[in-house]
Amino acid sequence: MRTRNNRAIFLNLIVCMMMLIAAHAQSQQFNPYPTGPYPDRIVLNVTQDPSTSLAVNWRTHDSITAGTAEIMVAVSNPTDVTKATGIKAKTETVTHDGKAANYHSVVFTGLQPNMLYMYRVGQGNYRSEWFHVRTAGKPGDKLSFIYMGDVQQGMRTVWPRVIREAYVKMPDAKLIMYAGDIVNRGRNDHEWGELFYGGGFIHSTIPGMMSPGNHEHADNAAGVNEITALWRAQFTLPENGPEGLEETCYYSDIQGVRFISLNSQAIWFGGDGMQKQIDWLENILVNNPNRWTCVVFHHPVYSVKANRDNENLREKFQPIFNKYKVDLVLQGHDHAYGRGMQKIPMPGTKNTSPTMYVVSMSGSKMYENDKPAWADKSGGHLQLYQLITVDSDILSYRSYTATGELFDAFELMKRTGKNNAVKNLK
Ligand SMILES: [Fe+2]
């Protein structure tokens, strides 16, 4: 019996090796996401103030050495598009795996709040279609936004249905937040190709707020853990964070909400990268004119897995969230769902946490949920997306499964000088 089992294991190993060799040979034979003269990977990004400015990035073949982005207030008469203003792009060549590509970026400035614009990008005969985008409104206007936990795997298989469901349910979202591990290997160009394929025109229509995870980082030849060169080439995120962490640690103020991205990979390693973010975060929270505050980062303060503990975040950052009554923290990394605040005590007081913590995932990678005591709601083996609105003193949160069933829901009610009141709705 044992000999037969050994033979079966051996045969399985041979089959697996042959499959790996075949997959490798295929990946060498084809470049699944080649560059061309037409712009691709067109992505809108939040700026510090998306009511008056927006950033856009795109990619071309490296023979296209310049680019232009045109923008105007949206019109119905197609002959009027000649009235658009053209802005010359910043262009940089990035050579990756021996293949060069040109990355172009433009920041549109001087826009009017809550206005429907149309824009396109490209050069000469090679231009994109015209996209619509509505700028953010003013503080007090009702705000809608989407939150995606880790995509990471299944970017062009099972994730596209999730982003499309979210868009169909909330087409007026002012931003889509990503909690890192957006792809599995940040250095693999074809994985970004899959992500841009998966989100299609939605990337070009609703500004993204990308926060990096451990999978967008890797050790370089000198053994230093660094973010992929593709990150800053293909996104234009605010550079209002600490020196050395630009476009990974930053904030954006939208309709009375301060949205903050932390680089939790740098926090996980500790040292200077963590201390810079502690000092910066204190400063932007003590000087925060917004009624609401929402922070996104990858490694959770409270984990959904029993064997995981991101000590630096829990010990160094949770006290800051408590002190400034941060309303909502959106995280990923654990590939299972957890959400709670009422069972998280504030050290030295009888009060519970003023902050609602969420861990979620949107791609195909799933881990078991250890049902931690802190979570008011736990779940797993589900692709989820979150739709959130802020209307005056009420923040309303809904988490849906990929098939559109309501999985979790709560409301936070702002109370001056007190922690938010929470209403569990699911
Ligand atoms: Fe992760």
Can you tell me about this structure?
- The chain is α+β, with helices and mostly antiparallel strands and 426 residues long.
- The protein has 2 domains: 40-134, Purple acid phosphatase-like, N-terminal (Immunoglobulin-like, Sandwich), CATH 2.60.40; 143-424, Purple Acid Phosphatase, chain A, domain 2 (4-Layer Sandwich).
- Helix content is 21%, strand content 31%.
- It contains 7 helices and 25 strands.
- It has helices at residues 2-29, 159-169, 189-199, 229-234, 264-269, 272-286, 311-323, and strands spanning 40-45, 54-61, 68-73, 85-88, 90-96, 99-108, 116-123, 126-127, 131-134, 143-148, 176-178, 208-210, 217-219, 225-227, 250-254, 257-261, 292-296, 328-331, 337-340, 356-359, 377-379, 384-391, 394-401, 406-413, 421-424.
- The strands form 5 sheets. Strands 12-11-10-22-23-24-25 form a 7-stranded mixed β-sheet, covered by helices on one side. A 7-stranded mixed β-sheet has the order 15-16-17-18-20-19-21, with no helix packed on it.
- Helix 2 links the parallel strand 10 and strand 11.
- Helix 6 (272-286) packs parallel to helix 7 (311-323).
- The chain is globular.
- The mean pLDDT is 94.
- Bound molecules: fe (ii) ion.
- Fe (ii) ion binds at residues 181, 213-215, 298, 333.
